Amino acid sequence: MAHADTHAHGDHHDHHDHKPTGIGRWLFATNHKDIGTMYLVFALTMFLLGGVMAMLIRLELLQPGLQFFDPARYNSLVTSHALVMIFGGVMPAFVGLANWMVPLQIGAPDMALPRMNNYSFWILPFAFTLLLSSFFTAGGGPAGGWTLYPPLSLQAGESFPLTIFAIHLMGASSIMGAINVIVTILNMRAPGMTLLKLPLFCWTWLITAYLLIAVMPVLAGAVTMLLTDHYFGTSFFNPAGGGDPVMFQHIFWFFGHPEVYILILPAFGVVSEIIPTFSRKPLFGYDAMVYATASIAFLSFIVWAHHMFTVGMPLAGQMFFMMSTMLIAVPTGVKVFNWTTTMWRGSLTFEPPMLFALAFLFLFSIGGFSGLMLAIAPADYQYVLVPGAVFAIMAGVYYWLPKWSGRMYNMTLAKWHFWLSTISVNVLFFPQHFLGLAGMPRRIPDYSVQFTDWNVVSSIGGFAFGLSQLLFIAAIVHGVWYGKPATGKVWDADMHGLEWTLPSPAPYHSFEEAPEIH
Amino acid sequence: MNTPIQDEDRNRRARTRRLTLVLFAVAIAFYAAFIGLSVLHGRA
């Protein structure tokens, strides 16, 4: 435990101060900043890979009929796109942000379990190599959708065990990451930092980490049972052997719905850090935000069957899941209200992190409102995930990058990235509402001709969104290498929070002596 | 004789170890519970 080392082995300070070099620095990394950087680079790589898959999907949907992919290959693309984006893009990106920022925000010298931190990162490249290598097996990649519903998913070819093992590895990585976050936040806070003084990013991550520990093993259990059904003659989900395929859906969504909040709660945390900074006001209703986050997390465990309204549930069950889903709008509304009220009469400026946070607020609310309506009958996942989670990650990167790199990126480039992304993401996803209302089913490579026009618009938006992400990379690379030096406070002379007491870039070893919080 | 800082350090290590083990145990328990419940569901 790095914190303990600082006190107990003070004579080793010189040894601890040097920065490892070469490939060993990354392979054997235990420094939270190095591991955070690796997570973020990995997530960006996966985000680009999943983005290429998305553009191939949109390419196929540009016209009715089959153009480029046979239906099986198309299904593989859809399934892998989801798995890559969720488990390789969004989740590792938030773990990267947590690795960088949690120790800095709580005044700890590192994460509590640095070696486990290393394992949990290095599992991921192997997991995704397994998943993606399944594309080269007989029968192609996994094609049953990211929800892996049996019996469809059991009909996969040789990709099946690779996918299952990859999911197990991703789960193990997430659980280790979550344990690390919880132990760090509960045990490593600077003296005087009570839980209700914890920055909201840490709070949302603490709650997310509990969700992860509760539900990733459930996913692991579900896919283990798929594996035994496929190879060991069990009949968990096979009606012919006395099993129940609907049970898989219940187990999957008991994981799947909290998973949605695993993807969005840290985004709430990032936005809760950014909006007060660029409003020059403290966050309105800090305590309410904490309790709202906890309430959302609790409610996320009792709404899972709203993903399965069509399986034939008793009316009482449908009513329960409908009501509990609508109840989530209450704490979410508290959050949106508090962010808006934080901005009320604030001295607002619109730097790139704030722009992304505001787009998050507007577009997430659209996604959330449609979710509320859909609670009444069966969801628009894309609107919540892309302008929700992904925009919050971009906001976080633009917000903290000067603290990480010590250099300020080019604002004009970042603003171009913002506007092109925001416009194109709406061109991409908004027409899909019209297509859905007109009766176009999801996850099909071919469609009736009357759906052509809006599909063309959506595809153009998709290509534009994909290409505009090149500006994100350009802004980061240009900023890190050629940006102007950033100050310690970066955004404003009046920045609060321990991370802003450090110089920019944050030194390789920070808070070796715990700061006092008053 | 330990200094107070060494004592605090040792306590913190112990708390870290304990909490880590408890959290791993919770994760394994959830895994086992869902498979166990599924077995029971099949027998019911």
Low-confidence stretches of chain A: 1-15
Major β-sheet profile of chain B? none
Please state the average pLDDT score of chain B. 90
Structural class of chain B: mainly alpha
Give the N-to-C terminal Cα separation of chain B: 61 Å
Beta-strand proportion of chain A: under 5%
Describe this protein's structure:
- The complex is a heterodimer of chains A (about 525) and B (about 45).
- Chain A is an all-alpha fold and about 525 residues long.
- Helix content of chain A is about 70%, strand content about 0%.
- Chain A has helices spanning about 1-10, 15, 20-25, 30-60, 70-105, 115-135, 160-185, 200-230, 245-280, 285-300, 315-345, 350-375, 380-405, 410-440, 450-480; strands at about 405-410, 485.
- A two-stranded antiparallel ribbon of chain A has the order 1-2.
- In chain A, helix 11 packs antiparallel against helix 12.
- The radius of gyration of chain A is 23 Å and the shape is globular.
- Chain B contains 1 helix and no strands.
- Chain B starts with a helix and ends with a helix.
- The chains are: A mainly alpha (about 525), B mainly alpha (about 45).
Summary keywords:
heterodimer; A: two-stranded antiparallel sheet; 68% helix; globular; B: 44 residues; 1 helix; 0% strand
Please provide a brief summary of the model.
The complex is a heterodimer of chains A (about 525) and B (about 45). Chain A contains 15 helices and two strands.
Layout of SSEs?
The complex is a heterodimer of chains A (518) and B (44).
Chain A: H1 2-8, H2 13-17, H3 22-27, H4 32-60, H5 71-106, H6 114-133, H7 159-187, H8 200-231, H9 245-279, H10 286-299, H11 315-343, H12 352-376, H13 381-405, E1 407-408, H14 411-438, H15 452-482, E2 484-485
Antiparallel strand pairs in A: 1-2
Helix pairs in contact in A: 4-5, 4-6, 4-15, 5-6, 5-7, 5-9, 5-13, 6-7, 7-8, 8-9, 8-10, 9-11, 9-12, 9-13, 10-11, 11-12, 12-13, 12-14, 13-14, 13-15, 14-15
Chain B: H1 4-43
